[in-house]
Specification:
- The protein has 247 residues and is α/β, with parallel strands linked by helices.
- The chain has one domain: Rossmann fold (3-Layer(aba) Sandwich).
- It is 32% helix and 31% strand.
- A seven-stranded mixed beta sheet has the order 6-7-8-3-9-10-11, sandwiched between helices.
């Protein structure tokens, strides 16, 4: 059996915040591995630590304790410029609030991540046009975010996440601000990306989304990894014993 590559690894990771004299343990001793080609969901109720986990999995933050590895690199040992370069190539982010720059057009928003990788303006423009066609928005490329519907903005965000052809697409509540029909279209697109070989990590509180789309679900509660389940058939999951550490 071919051994899959580990793209992201959290090794006994904790993230603590000081709120006055109180220490908030947003994550406390979590182990986590992301293998290439997986569709993973990070699940948990409000306050479970899933947003903190997303920031650490995406190398947007560094842990208080433990190690986070991105493509084999300990992120705490990298300069911010080095980390930004690696992160920009390896991970594409889709945020719940879209995070589009309002004074840039849809095309310009997609071109922006490529600029930080040193891509020529001609190549940036050609790639952005192609990605907008891919998400069905080639007729909206010169529109600003304020001129787009929520579903259109999310599709621009998806296209932007693919600008540097990342190995991992990290989606934070990708349907959270969308109606049911548009959310279904967005999830179909994430399934399509996964089917084409992308690794997809979805942060969600929606159990139905996790069951329908993810192969593996990491369940967080009170900053700890409560359990890990793996899909065994459509909508059927089994618990994995000793899910991460030493496995």
């Amino acid at each position: 059996m071919e051994k899959r590559k580990v793209l992201i690894r959290l090794d006994d990771v904790s993230k603590f915040y000081h709120m006055g004299e109180t220490i908030v343990k947003a994550l406390n001793g979590v182990d986590f591995k992301v293998y290439e080609g997986e569709f993973i969901a990070i699940m948990g109720p409000s306050g479970s630590g899933k947003s903190t986990a997303m920031n650490l999995v995406g190398s947007l933050d560094v842990p208080t304790r433990g190690k986070v590895y991105l493509d084999g690199n300990d992120v705490s040992e990298l300069k911010e410029s080095e980390l930004a370069q690696i992160r920009g190539m390896k991970i594409g982010f889709i945020f719940q609030s879209f995070n589009l720059i309002p004074n840039l057009t849809a095309k310009e928003n997609i071109m922006l991540p490529m600029m930080f990788q040193g891509t020529s303006i001609e190549e940036r423009e050609e790639k952005a046009v192609g990605l907008l066609k891919l998400v069905g928005l080639n007729d909206r490329m010169d529109h600003y975010p304020g001129q787009l519907s929520g579903g259109e903005r999310q599709r621009v965000a998806i296209a932007r996440s693919l600008a540097n052809d990342p190995e991992v697409v990290l989606a934070d509540e990708p349907t959270g601000n969308l109606d049911t029909k548009t959310g279904h279209i967005v999830m179909e697109f994430l399934d399509k990306l996964h089917g084409e070989g992308k690794t997809v990590i979805m942060v969600t509180h929606d159990l139905d989304l996790a069951k329908k789309h993810a192969e593996i679900v990491y369940w967080l509660r009170d900053g700890k990894l409560e359990k890990v389940t793996r899909k065994i058939k459509k909508d059927g999951f089994k618990r994995i014993d000793n899910p991460v550490r030493g496995k």
